[in-house]
Amino acid sequence: MPRAPLSDAIAFYDDLLKGDVLRRTQELLQRTSEAKRITYGGRVLAHALRPHFVTPEAHAELRRAASAVGQALEEVAARAATDAAFRESLHPQGWEELLLPVDGGRPGLATIGRLDGFVGPDGVIRFIEYNPDPGGPINSHHLGEAFDVSPAMEAFAKRYDVVRPATAPHLIPSLTALNARAGRSGPPNLALFGPPGPDDSDEEAVYRDYLEANGCPLRIVTSEDDWTYANGVLRVGDFRVDVITFISSVGFGGLVVGCGPDHPVMRAITDGAANFMNGLFRSTMLRSKTLFAALSRMADEGAFGAERDALLKKHIPWTRVVREGMTPRDGARVDLVPYVAAHREHLVLKPAFDYGGRGVTLGWQTDADTWSATLKQALEETWVVQERIPLVKTAWPVLDGGQVRYEEWHSDLNPFLWNGGRPEGFLVRLSSSAMLNLAQGGSLTPLVVVDTGKS
């Protein structure tokens, strides 16, 4: 039978939000958020009373796009490990050369990653960044579980077939697969390196609780001096360490800067006695926004073949490293810096190595003098310029004084990539601002696939 519009399903769900159903749904979401620490800096992240609904067809297209872009990013990162000239074209920070001999040539380290993107008015998702060590899978899982058993969703599911793509349940199998590639069975013994940053303590606690509850022993290590490596075994005290990771950039920086090549951690990783989750060299390369500039430029130049080039250009906005010179743009060649100076309404400037939205300058929200000053800074440092993605605000139900009120919010769609690039599950953020980072006030809601054919 023909499918009803998704808008009908949204209207039906929203109509359920009244009386006892509304009250009990809100109470459950609030109670779960507090009990499971679905928070950021102590701020509860669940505000919307509705999940983000997509059709099965849209879900399949999102996964196809994520797989294509993720595969291309992996190819670029792998090439960077073997091609010094290409690596230099990505404007590395300097750490990369130190980490290349540690694990740069080791395959199979990709455990979890996340592409961050937006669906435009044309229904096409465009990815703007990749996070090789992402937050969010466990919070998204806990919030999704709360929605699953909420009165509103239970009533909704009587009319529509619904599926919530899993996030956190893929974490332990992916870690176990990483451990198996090192010749060990079962989930690894995991060490979280470094203290959490001020914005990461909530997430660290969530990770710790989830991993330990699911059979993955771990230790949190805050000093470079706590490690020993002997007889092919890396230890913290008497705890054997199979896999090292971190929650915050503080931990990553401490590991990379504080642990030289003779440190027990670096020797163990180099010998293959332990692995860094997602790879030290790989993570350092993939966290740079210059990789999106490389993909965009290479697709414009026909590097991937006609079909893949078209797919990448569809799902990645035009992106370049900010440097003097000519570059392809919309079938022509433009002088990049004057072009960026003259087209701020359609462009974004971003520091290549920052995160959490810091330094991101939206041209359409910036005056000419500020744009000019930021462009000058971008030329002196390593920044990228990226085509503006048209964003859509939609109405989301929230509780206000016992009644439903609707807020006009932007949303993003950020698929997780597991165990070498398999797309499963999403982080969905909501915000009144075009900057949807949790650090800047964003909130969360789960993604749910709704088959409207049942109604």
TrEMBL record:
<protein>
    <recommendedName>
        <fullName>Circularly permuted type 2 ATP-grasp protein</fullName>
    </recommendedName>
</protein>
